[in-house]
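Amino acid chain
________________
===
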Amino acid sequence: MPTSSERAVVTGGAGFIGSHLTERLLSDGYAVTVIDNFSTGRRENLAHLAGHAGLTVHEADAADFATIAPLFRGAQHVFHVAALADIVPSIQNPLAYHRANVDGTVSVAEAARQTGVQRFVYAASSSCYGIPDVYPTPETAEIRPQYPYALTKYLGEQIALHWGRVYQLPVVSVRFFNVFGPRSRTSGTYGAVFGVFLAQKLAGRPFTVVGDGTQTRDFTFVTDVVDAMLAAAASDVTGEVFNVGSGGTYSVNRLVELLGGDVVHLPKRPGEPDCTLADIGKIQRLLGWKPTVSFEEGVKEMLKHIDYWRTAPVWTPATIADATREWFQHLGPRG
């Protein structure tokens, strides 16, 4: 348990994962400084924490070094979660993704270095593996980013690790696999399948399943992800990369079965893996972390909070078909 004087900076603290991390840090006794430009983060995600004496929220862009650097003074831990996500938007606007995910990481890492933080935890993405050859996929698997989002998140990881090697910034990177839970994103066609499906369920629409639904994902509950970040921050390990997954892989058809509803099938998209499954042996050995929330328990928890998606955009077969055409235009020729 930290002392009352310990302070953490959470970039992207109003986002899905960031807001859960902020909530947990405050509960553990940290003073927390949230930095978020609210391009994808939501103020509502922190509304239940309003008035907490330990919370300070700054609306700022992580890539704006001059603005954010003073906010790191006195912080012991930095959790860099801020990023732009989703595949198709990254194909459409790669410069915005480079600024957010690469320039933003340089800015945050340098601010952390200059203020002498004790731990820097980078929130990385398993999308860097692309379509791997090995399942469960270890951290040593070949890096094969298939689109700008995956590439920029991996470049951000390399920047963080480079600051560790050159400047002795105590860095750990955690690669997340298919995180889900309350407050998950309500837009996008990748990584937000829960948000898409729950909005469709509330609207009485069929679930839009890409392909035949037999593809499986290593769905990892958000509180387990938060536990992994805190384990990384509490350890003495530096310069390492860790997978963070559930220890299992679950089909989209199983998700539909648990949610209950009709289905519309859409064409499979190139560049998307049939399976994601993390090898989590390394993080279990070195950090003593393991997942505790089962897929079924996590889905039940999502359904308890389904009203969160009542105002979310409802993806229809037509709107997803438009996004899929964009996908095929850029990735189709390479398969």
